[in-house]
């Protein structure tokens, strides 16, 4: 049998990868393979039972191997591999093995983002922190108590369904009145058979769940700047609701739900075995230098890094009594024994490692004026320059404050912009509060440097100004991962982080053709810096590129002075970029300290908590609400641990407009995993409609070419003789592609690719524009060597999807293995355009007609976004729906962080 021939249907595939794809996708062959493997395993087990002593001749002893099942067909390897040189195994202890079972390819050592799948780790040179025996975790203790009482894991609830209902009532934002009304409904009481029938009995159940650390209240006075009738400052008594921070740490470090993600010692990760400093990898805090340096404590110490966050809290007013800090101070110095998530007892030293806040709060924490840097001693008039100033020193700051408190006038007090406060952090052990201040991606970069400054500066420098910018945003090509600013950006009144990020995706492309080259270079540098700062895993190489991007901005920012837009750049948020590299090196990547997380928590646990109250004595009610929410969350974690649910099977769905999850087809080894609906959204569509409505002008000729390519003899199937303009094919509205996992971007969005014609307005329904998305695809299948590591774009080309369809089975097994796509090709990649670093492409033609072809969807790698080449002034008749047909385009590297890694980081690296 030929090496690439399927032993079940006898079809010969061109490559081993093609055979693997065939066996994975073709249902009859896949079922036959599974059945054959089961028979083989059963035969081996039967032979083992009949010859338990191992007597008899075994393969490899010099004789012929025993015929296990003479009636079964020979089980040749259905996944043939390329021949491997036996000399590749230099280690005499490693023996090449062969298996008569189905095998899969070895996993590549490198991720799509260029980092190793398993980095080289350097352990801390001293022994790991000591443990002091084992103990029962909170989850184990609860399960033992339930067994003792003879109740299920769902207790105090009667069943899993009752527990799930309670969880929904607590987390869905339902008011207490609505909960009471729902539980008193006759249908609820008669059919649900619940053990609680009103809100009082329901909340008794919730309060019976294990609770977290206790909330306590301490009144404190705030002295304001308003005067009373006697001319004295007005004083307001407020309530400080707090929890013991050590008990909170004990709760977190002992939660068994975190067992598999908890780290107790620092490590240094490297891309190569020789562990060169430039090949370090940084992601979580335990990979940074801070933990490594602080670990130099007693040998039995386990460091628990503490991340603090505040928002508009006047720390200076209540820092004096430090009522919240003694537990942290004492435990940080001496340590406290805690039961950890793995059941081990460790001596834990909680140490403040990071402080998350925006610039005003950073200055409050650092005790400096807001026109100064909270991390370094740079002069306010020099913040706009690329200077490396001395970092603030905690001991020096304490000395200056002590001298100023005694009435002395130290020169550094004014030079460093220090405010006379009693810092809460001065007694915290091993705490350098200035080094703790972390990057703030939302306020410093998205809202600050980009939206508040770069957008207005670049717009002022552009020919046509804001009006031209608005026209280009209105006519921008669409993409499922891109917000379309249909009215431009000048009329947007309320901006959010989502709007900032969507503007960043296309802003550089909007400026092309009508901006000074230095403006383009400055904007590109800022965008590159923002995208590199968002990396969730950095190497020494990517950190160098982050610093280089910031240097590039400073090298080109003079253009804004030359154009009269700025006089200087002494702006706090502009200066903050200078500290990003060192912060990542010390504390790990900046995504872990983004204020977006704390602001999300503020919405979830402050605003929602307030809305749940009767607005009277609301603080006490808010703490009760928080305690109950925490109890429900904790209980849910316990149930996931005690009663793990089986994975939810993938369900098949239709191809509707609001489709969120489609049926998943098995992944082909020659391309990305893709998803299409079980039932095509457009149903059976005539060829004439595919040509006219979808724009597949050469559909039949292109389909004929495709079918001939699938046949080794270039013969057409018999059914081709019956194909004409009225022949129907099933056509899909969209497909989804699963982007490869890369460490720099842990959560890639679902990549949606649309191929839908325009729909006219009908009744109350508005007209819908056509969406024919552009993709990166391979004109020919991927070769046996896979993707090129030297050039990640090798073999890829931009194409526009005009239709996604499937052929019936009578067109041949190979032609019907996957859905097909009718595509229009663009010109190949050449060299990125100077100043903007984007690839320029245009429609590829042959004999004055657009070059088209039909390809399996497995040859589509991902969607891409094209930005029009506007020229000096946009043609006023261009619209988002037709602009791709009117001009050449740039490939957008800022659409997603995945695209930035591919088009900017990896391209620059290679």
List the helices and strands and how they pair.
Layout: H1 16-25, H2 27-50, E1 120-123, E2 131-134, H3 138-149, H4 160-171, H5 176-184, H6 186-192, H7 199-207, E3 216-227, E4 233-242, H8 245-253, E5 267-270, E6 280-282, H9 289-294, E7 301-309, H10 315-318, H11 326-334, E8 336-339, E9 344-356, H12 359-366, H13 394-405, H14 411-415, H15 433-436, H16 441-461, H17 465-474, H18 497-511, H19 517-533, E10 538-539, H20 540-556, H21 558-562, H22 572-576, H23 580-587, H24 595-611, H25 618-642, E11 674-675, E12 684-686, H26 687-692, H27 699-710, E13 728-732, E14 734-737, E15 751-756, E16 771-772, E17 774-778, E18 796-805, E19 820-825, E20 840-841, E21 845-846, E22 849-850, E23 852-856, E24 860-864, E25 866-868, E26 889-891, H28 897-909
Parallel strand pairs: 7-9
Antiparallel strand pairs: 1-5, 2-9, 3-4, 5-6, 6-10, 8-9, 11-14, 12-13, 13-18, 14-15, 15-16, 17-18, 17-24, 18-19, 19-23, 20-26, 21-22, 25-26
Helix pairs in contact: 1-2, 16-18, 16-19, 18-19, 19-20, 24-25
Features:
single chain, 910 residues, alpha+beta, four-stranded antiparallel sheet, 26 strands, 34% helix, globular
- Biggest sheet architecture: 7 strands, antiparallel
Instruction: Tell me the strand percentage band.
Output: 5-15%
> Approximately how much helix is present in the residues?
25-40%
Structural class: alpha+beta
According to DSSP, the number of beta strands is 26
Net shape: globular
Measure the end-to-end span.
Answer: 42 Å
**Radius of gyration computed on alpha carbons:** 33 Å
Taking pLDDT < 50 over at least 5 consecutive residues as the criterion, the unreliable ranges are 48-107, 313-323, 657-670
Average the pLDDT over all residues and give the rounded result: 84
Number of helices: 28
């Amino acid at each position: 049998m030929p090496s690439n021939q399927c032993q079940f249907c006898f079809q010969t595939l061109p490559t081993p990868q093609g055979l693997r794809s065939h066996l994975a996708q073709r249902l009859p062959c896949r079922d036959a393979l599974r059945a054959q493997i089961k028979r083989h395993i059963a035969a081996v087990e039967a032979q083992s039972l009949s010859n338990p002593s191992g007597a008899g001749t075994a393969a490899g002893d010099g004789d012929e191997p025993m015929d296990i099942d003479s009636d079964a067909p020979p089980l040749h390897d259905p996944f043939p591999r390329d021949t491997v040189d036996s000399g590749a195994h230099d280690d005499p202890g490693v023996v090449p093995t062969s298996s008569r079972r189905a095998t899969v390819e070895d996993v590549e050592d490198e991720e799509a983002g260029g980092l190793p799948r398993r980095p080289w780790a350097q352990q801390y040179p001293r022994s790991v922190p000591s443990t002091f025996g084992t103990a029962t975790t909170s989850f184990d203790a609860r399960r033992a108590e339930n067994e003792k009482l003879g109740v299920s894991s769902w207790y105090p609830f009667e069943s899993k369904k009752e527990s799930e209902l309670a969880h929904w009532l607590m987390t869905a934002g339902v008011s207490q009145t609505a909960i009471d009304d729902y539980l008193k409904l006759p249908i609820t009481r008669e059919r649900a058979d619940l053990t609680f029938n009103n809100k009082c009995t329901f909340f008794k159940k919730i309060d019976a769940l294990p609770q977290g650390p206790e909330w306590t209240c301490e009144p404190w006075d705030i002295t304001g700047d308003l005067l009373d009738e006697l001319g004295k400052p007005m004083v307001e008594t407020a309530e400080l609701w707090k929890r013991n921070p050590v008990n909170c740490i004990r709760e977190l470090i002992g939660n068994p739900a975190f067992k598999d993600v908890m780290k107790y010692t620092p490590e240094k990760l490297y891309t190569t075995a020789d562990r060169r400093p430039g090949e370090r990898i940084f992601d979580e805090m335990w990979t940074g230098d801070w933990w490594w340096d602080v670990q130099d404590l007693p040998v039995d110490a386990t460091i628990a890094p503490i991340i603090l966050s505040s928002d508009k809290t006047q720390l200076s007013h209540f820092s004096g009594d430090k009522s919240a800090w003694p537990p942290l101070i004492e435990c940080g110095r001496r340590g406290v024994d805690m039961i950890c998530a793995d059941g081990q007892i460790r001596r834990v030293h909680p140490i403040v490692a990071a402080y998350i806040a925006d610039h005003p709060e950073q200055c409050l924490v650092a005790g400096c004026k807001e026109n100064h840097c909270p991390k370094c001693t740079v002069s306010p008039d020099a913040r706009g320059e690329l200077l490396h100033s001395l970092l603030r020193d905690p001991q020096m700051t304490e000395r200056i404050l002590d001298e100023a408190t005694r009435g002395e006038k130290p020169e550094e007090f004014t030079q460093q912009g220090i405010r006379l406060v009693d810092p809460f952090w001065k007694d915290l052990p091993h705490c350098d509060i200035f080094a703790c201040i972390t990057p703030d991606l939302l306020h410093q970069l998205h809202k600050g440097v980009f939206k508040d400054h770069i957008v207005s500066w670049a717009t002022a420098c552009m020919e046509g100004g804001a009006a031209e910018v608005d026209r280009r945003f209105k006519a921008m090509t669409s993409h499922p991962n891109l917000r379309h600013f249909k009215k431009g950006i000048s009329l947007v009144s309320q901006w959010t982080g989502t709007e900032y990020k969507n503007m960043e995706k296309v802003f550089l492309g909007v400026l092309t053709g009508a901006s000074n080259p230095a403006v383009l270079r400055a904007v590109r540098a800022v965008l590159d810096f923002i995208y590199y700062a968002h990396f969730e895993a950095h190497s020494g190489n990517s950190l160098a590129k982050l610093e280089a991007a910031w240097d590039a901005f400073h090298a080109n920012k003079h253009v804004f002075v030359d154009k009269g837009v700025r006089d200087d750049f002494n702006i706090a948020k502009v200066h903050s970029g200078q500290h990003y590299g060192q912060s990542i090196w010390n504390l790990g990547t900046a995504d872990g300290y983004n204020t977006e997380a704390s602001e999300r928590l503020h919405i979830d646990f402050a605003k929602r908590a307030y809305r749940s109250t009767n607005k009277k004595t609301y603080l006490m009610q808010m703490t009760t609400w928080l305690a109950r929410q925490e109890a429900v969350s904790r209980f849910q974690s316990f149930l996931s641990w005690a009663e793990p649910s089986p994975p939810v099977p993938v369900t098949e769905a239709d191809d509707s407009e609001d489709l969120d999850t489609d049926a998943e087809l098995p992944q082909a080894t020659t391309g990305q995993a893709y998803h299409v609906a079980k039932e095509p959204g457009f149903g059976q569509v005539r060829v004439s409609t595919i040509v006219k409505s979808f724009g597949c002008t050469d559909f039949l000729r292109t389909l004929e070419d495709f079918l001939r390519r699938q046949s080794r003899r270039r013969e057409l199937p018999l059914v081709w003789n019956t194909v004409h303009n009225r022949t129907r094919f099933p056509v899909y509205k969209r497909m989804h592609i699963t982007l490869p996992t890369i460490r720099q971007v842990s959560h890639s969005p679902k990549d949606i690719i649309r191929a839908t014609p325009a729909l006219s307005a009908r009744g109350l329904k508005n007209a819908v524009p056509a969406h024919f998305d552009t993709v990166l695809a391979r004109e020919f299948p991927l070769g046996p060597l896979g993707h090129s590591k030297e050039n990640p774009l090798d073999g890829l080309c931009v194409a526009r999807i005009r239709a996604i369809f499937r052929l019936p089975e009578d067109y041949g097994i190979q032609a019907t293995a996957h859905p097909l796509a009718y595509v229009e090709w663009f010109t190949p990649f050449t060299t990125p355009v100077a100043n903007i670093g984007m690839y320029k492409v245009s429609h590829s033609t042959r004999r004055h007609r657009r070059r088209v072809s039909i390809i399996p969807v497995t040859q589509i790698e991902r969607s891409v976004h094209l930005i029009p080449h506007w020229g000096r002034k946009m043609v006023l008749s261009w619209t988002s729906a037709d602009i791709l047909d009117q001009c050449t385009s740039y490939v957008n590297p800022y659409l997603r962080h995945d695209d930035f890694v591919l088009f900017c980081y990896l391209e620059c690296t290679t």
